[in-house]
Specification:
The chain has 204 residues and is an all-alpha fold. 78% of the residues lie in helices and 0% in strands.
Length: 204
């Protein structure tokens, strides 16, 4: 069997994956889903977490972004590991292989990176700060996945494996949140200790 015959025999994504209406719907789905995670994190943290309520505004935004990035990191890990371990068109043809599930991750990840860029620049304006390395990272992430949507004849193997770079994100984000909880708890304990000492020195 020739290479051309092998390529022809590979499973092809459904025609709707090449419809711009379908693509924009899934990009919007990704954007809407991760915006909802951000807002849900804010509402739950506001209701349930004393640490969150004590944080300054900028760190509250970062807290919610951390929760959102952790959720995206889980999706990225699933997509990347599937690309590496499953016998799929992506594995058989790493240059042109595509499947419906890989299109789903490409499009929803594009929606996530749109959300990330909007959140980053909105918070930069709101808090009058600008993180150039982070902005550069987000720009190239969005450009790469938007490019995979526009140049739709290219395979998805590299894009899916690249998502594995987000595999550690849930752990780093949750660690940051726990450190914030611990830091404020330690501060509370110190203040409580000082107040106890003062009450002993000045009982009246």
């Amino acid at each position: 069997m020739t290479t051309e015959q092998q390529t022809t025999a590979l499973p092809q994504p459904s025609p709707e994956c090449f419809s711009w209406d379908y693509r924009l719907q899934l990009i919007s789905l990704g954007f809407g889903f991760y915006t909802s995670v951000f807002l849900l994190s804010h509402l739950l943290s506001l209701a349930l977490c004393c640490t969150y309520n004590a944080l300054p505004g900028k760190e509250k935004v970062f807290w919610n972004l951390a929760a959102t990035r952790a959720a995206f990191g889980i999706q990225s890990a699933v997509a990347g590991l599937r690309a590496l371990t499953e016998e799929s068109a992506l594995n058989k043809d790493k240059v042109r292989g595509q499947e419906d599930w890989s299109w789903f991750h490409i499009l929803t990840a594009t929606g996530f990176f749109v959300f990330e860029n909007i959140a980053l620049h909105a918070s930069s304006v709101a808090f009058r700060s600008f993180d150039l390395p982070l902005a550069t990272h987000h720009f190239f992430a969005l450009s790469g996945f938007a490019g995979a949507v526009v140049f739709d004849s290219q395979g998805h193997f590299l894009a899916m494996v690249t998502l594995l770079l987000e595999m550690s994100t849930p752990f780093t984000c949750i660690s940051w949140m726990l450190l914030k909880v611990r830091a404020l708890w330690c501060l509370f304990v110190k203040v409580k200790y000082l107040l106890q000492k003062m009450s002993l020195l000045y009982p009246y």
